[in-house]
């Protein structure tokens, strides 16, 4: 029954699409009407139409919308260029037009229920002092089944290929979930003496060893046998999509889980949104709308990638036990040499607790002590490690100096 739930959901969204389209059109016309004595009535109607028009998820990647950036004392125009692509992901380059030569940096985004655009703030900050590329993952529901599977090993292969495109002496920064693959890629490339092995590796709030101070997320992953995840969370992509019948962990199921964790907060936000619109408080309404435009842009996960991540990373802890394999060979972090290693954790991280990312420092015995850096940021949760004021003012300067020292 569960495997057809995605199809039923898609059918429902298709059937109700005319209501949302109609509400959006009515809202546009309503905004053209001069405001007069009935402003309160118009405000309430506008709020109702806005909420109806927004009552759906989008499966298209939002724009990064980084038009320019200040580097040094100059402002540079930024263009997005696909440097290399596979069916499952693009190596996206944020090129500063006529910009100075700066260290090349690959930002490794999580393959999660949201798009890599969730890191646009991280990208914008990094662009000040680096030539930035990002792993821009494609939505599996748009990838035909004929393109094959995408598992944990395929993710690691993509990182190796992307670094190969960047060439020697680039730097790799992994955010959260892909820290395991980033460490594996660095180990394999070091062992093979790959010419494009990274000059430095930074792991931020990543689950290197989730046996350390397990969080609720870690405990849930261990609370069920792997077959439960396969039977209850994996679905077929609906027939209306290019990736029809590909098996995925659907984005809308993931989002439902995220929302349910803070349900009261999300309900209050939408009540506030309606209230701001009714009162004509456009700026306050826009802040909430902008957040939910990103939050409700969801991405499915390939079933094999999700299941293998749950099993290998969160249930069996293969990497810290020296048992993680890649294409039939053991992943050996001790093989990493002549590379800087930085780990960053957040004091209040309830997804990846203190010590789980730091564990990489003990695994990489071949890295000289003076090339290792660890930073625990006080007062931040998971997202505060790579976004917000503390990231910009306290974490980023350390990362920037670490990258430049290793360039």
Automatic annotation (TrEMBL):
UniProt name for this protein: Polyhydroxyalkanoate depolymerase
Membrane-spanning parts: none
Record-linked NCBIfam families: PHB_depoly_PhaZ
Organism: Bradyrhizobium uaiense
Pfam families registered for this protein in UniProt: PHB_depo_C
Coiled-coil annotated residue ranges, if any: none
InterPro entries referenced in this protein's UniProt entry, alphabetically: AB_hydrolase_fold, PHA/PHB_synthase, PHB_depo_C, PHB_depoly_PhaZ
Domain PHB de-polymerase C-terminal, residue spans: 205-406
């Amino acid at each position: 029954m569960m495997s057809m739930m995605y199809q039923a959901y898609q059918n429902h969204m298709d059937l109700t699409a005319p209501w949302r389209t109609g509400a959006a059109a009515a809202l546009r016309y309503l905004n053209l009407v001069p405001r007069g004595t009935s402003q309160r009535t118009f405000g309430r109607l506008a709020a109702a139409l806005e909420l109806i028009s927004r009552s759906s998820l989008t499966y298209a990647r939002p724009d990064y919308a980084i038009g320019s950036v200040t580097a040094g004392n100059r402002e540079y125009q930024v263009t997005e260029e696909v440097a290399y692509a596979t069916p499952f992901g693009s190596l996206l380059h944020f090129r500063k037009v006529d910009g100075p030569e700066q260290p090349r940096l690959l930002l490794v985004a999580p393959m999660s229920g949201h798009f890599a655009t969730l890191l646009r703030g991280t990208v914008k900050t990094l662009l000040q002092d680096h030539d930035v590329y990002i792993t821009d993952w494609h939505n599996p529901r748009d990838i035909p089944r004929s393109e094959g599977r995408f598992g944990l090993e395929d993710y690691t292969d993509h990182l190796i290929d992307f670094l190969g495109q960047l060439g020697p002496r680039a730097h790799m920064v992994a955010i959260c979930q892909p820290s395991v693959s980033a460490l594996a890629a660095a180990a394999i490339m070091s062992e093979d003496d790959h010419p494009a092995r990274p000059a430095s590796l930074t792991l931020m709030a990543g689950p290197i060893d989730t046996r350390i101070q397990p969080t609720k997320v870690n405990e849930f992953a261990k609370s069920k046998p792997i077959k439960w995840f396969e039977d209850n969370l994996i679905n077929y992509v609906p027939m209306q999509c290019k990736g029809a019948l590909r098996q995925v962990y659907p984005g809308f199921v993931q989002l439902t889980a995220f929302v349910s964790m803070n349900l009261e907060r999300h309900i209050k936000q939408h009540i506030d949104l309606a209230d701001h619109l009714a009162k004509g408080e456009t700026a306050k309404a826009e802040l909430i709308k902008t957040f939910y435009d990103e939050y409700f842009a969801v991405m499915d996960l390939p079933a094999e990638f999700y299941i293998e991540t749950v099993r290998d990373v969160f249930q069996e802890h293969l990497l810290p036990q020296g048992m993680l394999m890649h294409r039939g060979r053991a992943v050996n972090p001790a093989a990493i040499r002549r590379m800087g290693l930085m780990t960053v954790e957040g004091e209040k991280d309830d997804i990846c607790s203190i010590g789980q990312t730091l564990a990489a420092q003990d695994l990489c015995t071949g890295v000289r002590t003076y090339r290792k850096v660890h930073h625990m940021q006080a007062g931040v949760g998971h997202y505060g490690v790579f976004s917000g004021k503390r990231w910009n003012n306290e974490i980023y300067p350390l990362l920037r100096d670490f990258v430049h020292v290793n360039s």
